Structures are given as structure tokens and as C-alpha cells.
Predict the structure.
Amino acid sequence: MSCDEWTGGAEWQPVTWVGGGAGAADEEYREDVVRFARERLGFEPDAQQEQVLRGGKRVMLCCSRQWGKTTVTAIKALHTAYFDPAALVLIGSPSLRQSTLFLRAVRGLAARLGLGKLRGDGENRPSLQLPGGGRIVGLPGNADTTVGFSNVTLLIFDEAARVPDEMFESLAPVLAVSGGGLWAISTPKGKRGFFWRIWARGDGDWMRIEAPATACARIPASFLEAARRDLPERRFRQEFLCEFLEPDGALFSAAAMSRAFHDDIPRLELW
């Protein structure tokens, strides 16, 4: 389901805040983000979206365009900040505009809770601070301006395949002490960058979820057929079939480059 496809027509009433955290009536949703999405936000996730929402600390989602990735991760960010007064959720993206769009999605979701107009945290732009104290901060795609954060509860890379490696390498260490979550959400963009490397490696403690358009009931087959005709083949395979393709103009494939390097070369004795 996309951010604009709300279900249910009930008007949400403002909540009574207790202890600086979530509203008293919402405490029952603290441990169930999917129920929170359905009953408080009017969002009905499909099976894969529910799997993502229930994901663990380290989640990689490789999905097609129009799958609803921004909405789903915005729900996760809002749920985290809503129920934890000390929460700090960071949104890393390729550009300040992308981060601003993500926070706009969060703001729209928060309106369903009757929170009114959310303000920034007074320190970062763009940012949102919930009435209980939890914060969501959007970052530009520039590693030089992303240092200095600590006690991060959740770090989300939106459009991760387009986020510069330098930004990922700059931000990932902020989780060293807090033990916070790390989510990387994206449509593929070639066999390059940290998103592809971690996805292709296939090991570690990441939850990997692949969601091509052909498995999404909300995207009509007729639309995909038209897109297949109208778009270049590479573009269609990347944007809708979630395929990691060789970069345009590459002289050697990623596999060939990998085979060119070995750790088992015999030591050369010069004396």
C-alpha cells in the first residue's frame, strides 16, 4: 500500500500524553508495529510489507518502484520515535530533498495520530520532534555533514543504492555503542556501492527481503507490460525486477574483477 492509499474512515482523536512517551491509549501498540499501522494509521500492509515492519535490527529491502518502501519505513521510524522518548532516528539518503520527502511522509502518518503539526528539534534541518521527545532527523547525501551523532536508535538508508559509500562509512559507526537498528531500503542501481556488496555477499546477520513488481498485487500486469515495451530493457529489469546489472560502459563484469584478485598468491622470495 502506498502512502496516499489510506483505509478506514474513522477520525483519529488527539491523545493524552503520559510520562513523556506515547499516548496512554496507544501503549498496547508498543510491541506490535503491524497492529499500530493497521489500527492507528489506517494502513493495511501486504504480506511482504508486514515482514519488513516486523524485521529485526538489520534489514535489507531490495524492491521495485511503487512498492511502498518509503511508507513502510516511515511507519517504522514513526513507531520507534513515538514509543521511545529518547529515540533518535536518522534518515540517510542521496540528497537533502530525498530526506525531506521522507520526513514529509512521516509527518503525514503522524497526522493520523492526532498529533497536530510537528516541529523540528531545533538543532537539525530537516527534522521532526514528537511530543514525547523522540526525534527523526533527515540527512543530506554528504559524509562531511553527518558526523557528530550518538545514541542512535535506528539508522535508515533510504534509496540506499544511491547513497555514497562515504556516507555509509561515516554513519555506520554511530551504532557501535547504542546497538541501534540499521535498515537499508532501495531499488537496485548497478553492481556497485555498499548496498549491492552487502546484498550480494549473502552472509552476516542481515534480513534480506526481495520484492519485485511481479510479486506485488498492487502493480497491475498491464502496467508492467506497458513499461516493458516503453522502457529500455536494462531500466525495466532494474526498476521493476530488482536486478543488479553491470554499470553502463563497464569493460569488465563485477564477477571478472572479483576473480582477478586472490589472497593465495605464493610469496615471492627475492633473496
